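Fill in residues.
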């Protein structure tokens, strides 16, 4: 049994992909007998009553400590009014004065609180293993600094997304001086870390080439077998149902949505009878994507209110196709939703440009990548084949390596090896 310190800036009930990934790992580490001490950001007011992922982290061997982030809330929210804009500019100027690198790293302002609590737990619990999930990234830097005080610490940094080569957190807009600082911080972390992990093989290869650190290991996104699979409900409505659930990455999403619209307009024009059978339902908050699809005039698109993860599992179990909408910067990533889709053994339609996921889906015959140049024609071919019950789909794809129990065991083996 190990005692593990997990630094997860996002952790339930605060949402986010990193929150879900490491909430699940914490759960399975605890179930396998390990004790997990979590340092996480204070709960955001808008999520105090959010219980969607809390059950995963309510375990006697999971101890969660909430820390103040000292990061201005206005920089993480929506700016609507003139007074909001003034407050935003004031807060941004203050963070820029006090923080080198990007001012949009939410974890940049909690150094004192984080290191103080980490020191106390490391000493009182005799902790030897620290895991930090990034992004945001500065938490990894702060924990790497502690290795000078605690040289016996083994530090694992899990890259959910790339950092200095990514498009989020204001990185592309940084001045040369601020970008240089972020690169130096990332280099320092790679020098101090004992293990770098990521669910994305392409990201790991890029990091290894860029920083030449000690050890890089693929730690894939995983899934738990949904209860909905045990009791699937059959449909008999004559429709071909496509579903999407959860949040949509809005950065550069417009070309993806336009591609989606063009593909279904082609289907409507060339196969109107087949088009009338399409029921494409989005279980996601209404916003930019809702407006774009509503303006298309296509009757196949519907928006439903977001539902709980458990309810969406039942939606997936009844669907004919599960869908992904991925901007170009996500095409090389093994996104979390891929792992969540796998246990349903339904074909995945990924509206995206070619990348790692295309290879993964099509080499295993479990999904289809629809790019902007040939996707409209492929969509027509896929739906025609599906209606004729001739779709080439691998119903026996081996999912063993993607179960949380198996992936957690891989994680523990690497902790033992450090």
């Amino acid at each position: 049994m190990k005692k593990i310190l997990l630094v997860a800036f996002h952790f339930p009930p605060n949402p986010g992909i990193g929150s879900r990934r490491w909430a699940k790992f914490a759960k399975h580490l605890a179930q396998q007998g390990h004790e997990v001490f979590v340092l996480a950001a204070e709960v955001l007011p808008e999520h105090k009553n959010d219980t969607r992922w809390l059950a995963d982290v309510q375990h006697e061997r999971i101890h969660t400590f909430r820390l103040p982030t000292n990061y201005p809330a206005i920089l993480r929210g929506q700016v609507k009014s003139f007074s909001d804009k003034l407050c935003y500019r004031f807060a941004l100027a203050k963070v820029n004065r006090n923080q080198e690198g990007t001012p949009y790293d939410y974890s940049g302002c909690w150094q004192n609180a984080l290191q103080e609590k980490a020191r106390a737990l490391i000493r009182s619990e005799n902790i030897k293993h620290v895991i930090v999930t990034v992004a945001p990234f500065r938490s990894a830097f702060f924990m790497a600094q502690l290795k000078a005080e605690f040289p016996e610490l083994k530090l694992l940094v899990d890259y959910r997304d790339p950092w200095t080569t990514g498009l989020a957190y204001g990185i592309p807009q940084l001045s040369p001086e601020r970008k240089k600082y972020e690169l130096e911080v990332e280099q320092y972390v790679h020098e101090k870390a004992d293990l770098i992990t990521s669910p994305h093989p392409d990201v790991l290869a890029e990091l290894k080439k860029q920083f030449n650190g000690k050890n890089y290991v693929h730690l894939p996104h995983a899934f738990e077998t949904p209860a909905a699979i045990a009791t699937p409900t059959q449909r008999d409505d004559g429709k071909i149902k496509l579903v999407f659930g959860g949040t949509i990455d809005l950065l550069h999403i417009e070309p993806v949505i336009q591609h989606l619209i063009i593909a279904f307009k082609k289907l409507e024009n060339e196969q109107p009878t087949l088009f009338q059978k399409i029921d494409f339902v989005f279980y996601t908050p209404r916003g930019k994507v809702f407006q774009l699809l509503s303006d298309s005039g296509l009757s196949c698109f519907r928006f439903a209110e977001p539902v709980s993860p458990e309810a969406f599992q039942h939606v997936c179990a009844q669907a004919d196709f599960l869908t992904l909408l991925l901007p170009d910067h996500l095409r090389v990533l093994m996104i979390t939703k891929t792992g969540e889709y796998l246990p349903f053994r339904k074909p995945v339609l990924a509206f995206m440009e070619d990348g790692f996921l295309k290879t993964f889906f099509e080499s295993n015959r479990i999904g289809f990548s629809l790019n902007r140049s040939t996707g409209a024609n492929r969509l027509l071919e896929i739906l025609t084949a599906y209606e004729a019950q001739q779709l080439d789909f691998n119903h026996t794809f081996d999912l063993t390596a993607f179960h949380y129990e198996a992936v957690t065991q891989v994680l523990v083996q690497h902790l033992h090896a450090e």
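The mean pLDDT is 89.
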